[in-house]
Structures are given as C-alpha cells and as structure tokens.
Amino acid sequence: MKNSWIIAKRDLGSFFSSPIFYVVTTVFLILYSFIFINILNFFAMQSMQSGQFQQMGMGLNLNEMVIEPSFQNMAVILLLIIPIITMRSFAEEKKSKTFRLLLSSPVHLKEIVFGKFLACMIVVTLMVLLSSYSIGFLFFIGEPDIGPILTGYLGILLMAGCYVSVGVFASSLTENQIVAAVITFGFSLFMWVIGWGAQTAGTTTGEVLQYLSIIEHLDRFLKGMIETSDIAYYLSFIIFGLFLCHRALDSNRWR
Amino acid sequence: MIEVENLTRYYGSRRAINNLSFQIEKGEVVGFLGPNGAGKSTTMNIISCILPASSGSAKINGFDTFEQSLKIRKIIGYLPETPPLYPDMTVAKYLGFAAGVRGVAANKISAAVEKVIEKCSLKDVGHRIIGRLSKGYQQRVGLAQAMVHDPEILILDEPTIGLDPIQIIEIRKLIQELAAEHTIILSSHILPEITQICKRVIIINEGEIAAVDSLDGLTASLRKSERLSLTVREPKKDIIGKLNDMDQVLSVASEEDNQFLIECELRSNLQDDIAKLALENHWGIVELKPLAMTLEDIFLKLTLEEKEPVT
Q1: Which of B101, B128, B141, B147 to mutate to test the interface with A (most CBs of A within 10 A)?
Q2: In the CATH scheme, what is the homologous superfamily, with its name and number, of domain B2-220?
Q3: Which residues in chain B have Cβ-Cβ distances shorter than 8 Å to A103?
Q4: ipTM of the complex, rounded to two decimals
Q5: Range of A119's domain?
Q6: Cβ contact (<8 Å) for A97 and B84?
Q7: Domain B224-292, second-level architecture
Q8: Which of A104, A113, A175 to mutate to test the interface with B (most CBs of B within 10 A)?
C-alpha cells in the first residue's frame, strides 16, 4: 500500500506538471457546465409555465429534473475524457523505459498496478469534485434532496472506476498511448451500449446483457438507491480490469 | 554471492542466451564483454529480476531471482542501458522517488538523496528538470538512482554509452570509486573500459560464454606465440634474414624502417640472443620489448575466429 502511494504520488506530480491535466479538466468543465446550464434553463422554463397551471407543477423537482440528467451527461463526458487520463499509465513508462526502474525495485506488481489506478482515480475524483460547484449552486436557488446527490456521486465515481480500470489495462497492453486510449474508449462504450441488445434478445440473455451494461447500474444510484448488486458489479468490474492488467504485465516478461 | 547456472532465455523462438554459468564473489568488479546483441542485457535483466529465465537459475546470496525476487531487489541497484529517467521531474525529486520505491524508509530518503547527489556530483543540477540535462548528467542521474538505496550489488548496463570522452572518464572514475564498497557487474562493448575497471571479464558471444578469466589469464592463455618488438638505430638489409635464421623465430615483419615485429615460440626468451645478435652486427639496439596481447586482440580472436572456448 505504501509503495502504491509512492507510485501514485509520482504519477500525480507528472499529471499536474504537464498540460494534460489542465486541458482535460478545462474541457470537461466547459462541456459539463454548458450542459448543466441548458438543463437548468429548461427546468426554469418548465417552472414558469407550471406557475400558470397548478397541476403541472406536481412532478417538478430539482433532483429529478436537473441533478439526475446532469449526472447522466457527466457519465457521457467522463467516457470521452477518462481514456485520455489513463492512456499514459503504463504505455509511457514502457516507451520511455522507466518501467524497468519499477520492475527492478522491491515492489509487487500488484502494488504498481494499484498505484497507477489510484493516481488516475484521484485525478478523476478531483475533476468530478470541481464540477460539484453546479450542484452546490442549486442549494442557493432551491432545496434539492442531499441523499440522491451523495449516492449519485458514489455511483459516478464507481462507474468512473470501471473506465479507469479498463484504461489502465489497455495502457498495459501497448507502448502507444493513442492505441491505449482508443481501446479504452471502444471497450467502455461497448460496455455502455451492451444493454441495448436486451430489447431484442431473449429474456434470459436480455437480462444478462442488461446486467452487464455499465450505465444500467448507475440509474439506481442517481435515484438515491444503493443496491448491493450494483456495488458488486462495479467493484468486480474494477478488480477484474486490474487483474487483467496484472496478468498482461506479468506475461509481458515471459515474451 | 551471485551464482548463475545453465541460464537460458528465449524471446519467442529466438534464443538470446544459452546455458550461461558463472559465479561472482562479493566485492568483485566483473565485466560483461560482447558485441551488440550478444545477450549481455538479457543476462543482466535476469539477474536484476526483471525477466524470468526460460530455464536454468540465477541466485544472489542464495535467493532465486525469480522465486524470491523481492529479497534480491532490495540489495541490487540496476542501471539499464537506457537510464530509466522521468524527463518531467527534477533530479532531487526523481531520486527521492527512486529511493522510495527502492525501499528506503520515508524518514531516511532525504539523507539518502543528499548522499547520492554528493557522490555523483549532481549538486549543481539538483533542482533542474531531468529532460533538460545533458546526456552526461542524465547518465549520472541514472547511476545515482541505481545506488540511492546503497545496494550491495550494482548492475550497470553500458554505463558509458553515448557519452563524450571527458564524460566517459568521469563516469569511469566514479565507478572505480564505487568498486571499493560494492560488487559491480558492468557490461560494455568498449574494450578499454573493461580493462581499466574490471578485474575479471566474462566474454559473451551469440548468447554463450566465450571465456571467463582475469585479464592477465586471458591474455596468457590465448597467446599461441610471443611477440617482441625490436627497434634499432641503423637498419641494415640483412636484419630480417638474420632474425629469421634463429631457431625459435616464427616470423619477422618490419613495421617501419627501423622497427621489427618478431613472432617467436612461447617461452622462448629470445631477448638475450637477439640482443647479442644486434651487438655483434652493430645494429645499434634502441629498444627490445615483449608485446602483451590487448583485450581487443583477445576479443576479436574469441568472437570472430571461433577458436575453442578457453576457461
């Protein structure tokens, strides 16, 4: 654990000293903010109209109409952005031959893998935290329910963890950062849309596909529910990705 | 201290090293010598626990480099042929990181870094970004990261490659200083380097050991004949002929007008006779000396002529 932290700390240092972090965070915040403002405007418009008709105001609440769609959109932006954050993890170390320093050090391979994962996770968490100004703003203009917000963040971070896990694994497969990013993006998107097959597939297959879909599990978090099966899905997804990464790095030494 | 037995390593179907066996004692400075692609780096990678061997074993202090690698990694310092430097870090931060992953306790890191900066004369560049340093400094930083945790064994893969002559001399001096306290394995395809630093040489060619011996031993065992160089003041036409008439002389070649290279049988001790001949014929002897074989000669002989391995 101590070794993982040493490795994560170095990676964070190199994130913050390179433009990548700042560019990616800026792009993320601009995209998210634009979408958030639009959602908020739409909500304001709806509220105005509902002021004229008493009954229409029934279903309007900030959690359902602003926060939930904001989180859903954030999930999409993260899908696009996380491959850029994770692509360097191992690919760069291998390309610049610095990986040998880690390999010849008294550090377990799993500590290295976890350190890399941790660094990327911290960066993603930081980005998500920065975006929380928007939710904070809602507390000034209304009274959103805090519960679904907290579970929403938990869900977003767990989902982001899955992307990062895929990203770190993809990065361990290649020396080329672009290749790593493309694999991460492709695979993450696939795990996203896999649930779409559920509609046409048979009942059992459909249910399996639905369960495998990454986004399917987020919905309940956004509604304020923490279900063991969702947490189990995300955690096992993350651990499986890191396990594959470990195997890939280990088998690399034999070739 | 280091025992390597029947080490073999394949990359796919290509065999990089074949059946290497050798031992290295504590405190020795050993040179791996061989042309590019001979398997030096592969051997070093296996000893440094980075690559597993396809068969055979390498043990350090009785620990297997594959099975018990974590114990070994604490006592080795490895400098790969491309120094593992993060170009975006400062020298001091990088060495701090290296000390951390190499297992130096958190409260001793700054002392260890300071010590190694001192040792490798990196004081002036401690706060500079590694990517902007000259190749010579980068190489020194690479050496510094290998020894920041004060390892018993230093494994240096071509430590002077790509440096200019002055930098080479500096690095070489540094390694010689380190030799007092560490066991050092060093690889090179540059011969004078090995002669200056190492007491013992392991010559590797095409993945196999061509010779393991001390430098003197190598020279002696490889010599099939002795060579003498004779310089005279007054070269006369009959010198070559008269020298050739001697019993044990195999051949005589004239290098310059007044300088002759005499090849004679092993242990023939012809100096006295040649001197006498020179006196009798008034050649005016200036110099008569035996020529030792250089490492270059040995190397070429072993690797190119496919002579029988000498051990």
Answers
A1: B101
A2: P-loop containing nucleotide triphosphate hydrolases (3.40.50.300)
A3: 49-50
A4: 0.86
A5: 2-254
A6: yes
A7: 2-Layer Sandwich (3.30)
A8: A104
Q: How far apart are the C-alpha atoms of A249 and A230, rounded to whole Å?
A: 29
Q: Could you read off the pLDDT of B174-229 as tens digits, one per residue?
A: 888 888 888 999 888 777 777 778 888 888 888 888 778 777 776 666 666 677 88
Q: Are B101 and A101 within 8 A, CB to CB? A: yes
Residue B74, SS3?
coil
Query: Smallest CA–CA separation between B105 and chain A, in Å?
Result: 11
**pTM for the complete prediction?**
0.84
Model pLDDT for residues A107-123, shown as the tens digit of each residue: 999 999 999 999 999 99
Residue ranges per structural domain of chain B: 2-220, 224-292
Q: Cα(A99)–Cα(A90) distance, rounded to whole angstroms?
A: 8
| Counted domains in chain A | 1
Nearest residue of A to residue B82 by CA position? A97
* B296 band by pLDDT with thresholds 50, 70 and 90: low
Q: Does B95 touch chain A (CB under 8 A)?
A: no
Question: Over chain B, what is the mean pLDDT?
Answer: 83
DSSP A22-82: HHHHHHHHHHHHHHHHHHHHHHHHHHHHHHHSGGGGGG--HIIIIIHHHHHHHHHHHHHHH
